Amino acid sequence: MAxxxxxxxxxxxxxxxxxxRARYGLFFWLPAAWLAFIVFCAVFADILPLQPNEEMDFTxxxxxxxxxxxxxxxxxxxxxxxxxxIIFGARVSLTVGVTATAIGMTxxxxxxxxxxxxxxxxxxxxxxxxxxxxxxxxxxxxxxASVIFGGSLxxxxxxxxFLLIPAFARVSRANTLNFAQREFIVAxxxxxxxxxxxxxxxxxxxxxxxxAAYGLVVVAFAIVIEGALSFLGLSVxxxxxxxxxxxxxxxxxxxxTPHISFVPATVMFLTVLSFNLVGDTLRSRLxxxxxxxx
Amino acid sequence: MRYLAxxxxxxxxxxxxxxxxxxxxxxxxxGDIAYDIAGLDSSEEEVEAIxxxxxxxxxxxxxxxxxxxGILTGDWGHSFRTGELVLDAIMTRFPVSLExxxxxxxxxxxxxxxxxxxxxxxSNSRFDRIVTVGGFFCLSVPNFMxxxxxxxxxxxxxxxxxxxxxxxxxxxxxxxxRNFILPSLSFALAEWTLLARVLRSDMIGVLQxxxxxxxxxxxxxxxxxxxxxxxxxxxxSLITLLGLQVGALIGGSIIIESIxxxxxxxxxxxxxxxxxxxxxxxxxxxxxxxxxxxxxxxxDICYALLDPRVRSAKSHG
Lengths: 294, 317
What we know:
Number of helices of chain B: 14
Oligomer: heterodimer
Order of helices and strands of chain B: HHHHHHHHHHHHHH
CATH topology of the largest domain in chain B: MetI-like fold
Largest sheet of chain A: none
Shape of chain A: elongated
Order of helices and strands of chain A: HHHHHHHHHH
Distance between the termini of chain B: 13 Å
Number of strands of chain A: 0
């Protein structure tokens, strides 16, 4: 008896959380607004009334935020405007984050759909390939790629996108498996639909949404990895500002002028956190939708 | 047993593929390594002789086969830069990386176990929500950023711990350990969140089982129920994740070891990447991949030991 009531309570509590998490609350709108703001700044960086990001202001070297006139977020050790560099750095982070995720998602979806639908030797082969990719430390591949081809937006986006394929393939495969045995697939097969038609028209629409929600979390991950690369000086070459690079530059004088590292670090943290929060809300929302649709 | 045997074959195949892929990747590195070794003012003959000597003029596949044979017999080649034997170079640095990764995982577990279990016991309470939200914040701090924050707070501001450097354990346990606290924390403060999340959701499932209600009904203390009856079935995903995280930690140790100047495998690897010392790169990547694969095989064995159902169910399926 006791177990039945606790179970009921647990169920009710679980439904309650599901409902609360599915509601687009403050933890959804605040980060979404921040992302919109960052994207806006990055897109219109050329038009916005900013200090030029490469110009050195020798009257204000390493000025803390709010103290030097015209530099609301201060300047770095060479007198360059931190606000302007952060906004131009956002271009790098967002471009890499979005492009790499798009590449990983496209190929990962295709591979995952094939592995989940056909099973058999195709699945075995694909799993072997994915496990291989996962066993090579990703950062090593990225480091090698940027040493071989030189660090640039294209190289970083492409190699990171390649490394993101296994994760997307796994998620897509798991979602495909969910649907591949369902009645509507069996029905489509019975009607004589070709495999390609079933995959594209029946399975893909069901799989693409949860995978896309996962994609937002991956954008956060990609931004972190790009940050790590530019922190090591292996992403975009030096005069171009990037968040990781700015954090690394402030390391030398962390004790005297911590703002050079911490201002870009805060912006990067808020952006990554926002992608995580928005992605997670959408994901649980979608999971709720699917369950209620059953 | 058949399940483990199948996993073993699979992992061997993965290892073979990993070594092949890295060998090919490293071999497209630009610049002729023979010129680097010979030096600037060397004649074409000298360069050619070096090429002969290290076998650069033969097909890549042949070199791969030879190199793989060497790996299996313990001859990992030597560094073109320092002449050091690759296997020796890795083995002298491996304990540093191992200590870093182990300490990081222990710290992460120390945070994750209590927080995850209490969150499961009082799911949807204020405590649970604070842990969830706090987890999101921690997860959004990249490890290099965490390292900078820790250096600033504990190294420069409070001046409690050394910021860089390494002392061997022969200098004393504390002298050795204090250099590892900040690097390990840089990992642990992010890694605990995933562990706690997984433990929480598994634990909630287990706590709803009948035998837990039974144990409660007969008046068993909660602590005993948790440790004796609930922990084992609730720890499967936790163990898998611990294994997978080691992979991420090894990758991350490249950057953390550089920041804190710890002489580990990660720092050896990044140094040789910049210097295009490709025998060392290959050796390090192979070593890391083997470690990763062995750890995940260990995870599979843990599965079989912890849950008799896995042994039978998976070997039939």
